[in-house]
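Q: What residues go here?
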């Protein structure tokens, strides 16, 4: 095993370098996410993978806030974000900008996460789609049905135990990583 790297050896960007850097063509949409710790965690993951931006919708808390900062650790200052009064407004704006939108939800006909590479490959070759958005739902109710209906597709994480849901920030981390493997060149 190797020696752990110290913070200077990691060669991390500073805020200005991050702001100027190329971003992954992925937007994360938070649909009425209640927990500020979940919001902060999504910011931190979005920073780690250079996600384009985050849409904070409805009751989802906005920076600056100490509870968001506690898990974001400053990522709320690096990742671009915007607030929308409701998630449908964000969906409409993203569609206008040419984004293909996935609700992360258990739905009839959803694409299982392990099939995402084939789906993205098909969307790129057949429809020339290069920009994507993922919608994470409320901790209790998930993604609203009207938002699911307005999305282009649903993406589902297969689960094999007795529980049929994952924490929002855990889900975001898993899904963002799968997109990163496909979109970061």
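A:
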């Amino acid at each position: 095993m190797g020696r752990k790297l110290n913070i200077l050896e990691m060669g991390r960007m500073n805020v200005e370098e991050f702001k100027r850097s190329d971003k992954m063509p992925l937007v994360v949409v938070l649909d009425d996410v209640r927990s500020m710790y979940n919001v902060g965690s999504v910011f931190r993951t979005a920073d780690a993978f250079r996600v384009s931006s985050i849409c904070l919708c409805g009751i989802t808390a906005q920076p600056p806030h100490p509870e968001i900062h506690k898990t974001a650790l400053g990522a709320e200052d690096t990742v671009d974000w915007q607030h929308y009064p409701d998630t449908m407004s964000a969906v409409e704006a993203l569609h206008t900008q040419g984004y293909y939108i996935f609700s992360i939800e258990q739905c009839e006909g959803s694409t299982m996460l392990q099939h995402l590479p084939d789906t993205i490959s098909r969307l790129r070759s057949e429809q020339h789609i290069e920009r994507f958005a993922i919608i994470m739902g409320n901790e209790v109710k998930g993604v609203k049905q009207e938002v699911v209906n307005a999305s282009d597709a649903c993406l589902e994480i297969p689960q094999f135990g007795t529980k049929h849901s994952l924490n929002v920030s855990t889900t975001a981390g898993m899904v963002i990583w799968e997109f990163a493997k496909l979109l970061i060149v």
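A: Context that may help when evaluating the design: The CA atoms of residues 35 and 60 lie 8 Å apart. The beta strands are 24-31, 51-57, 80-84, 100-104, 111-112, 132-136, 153-156.
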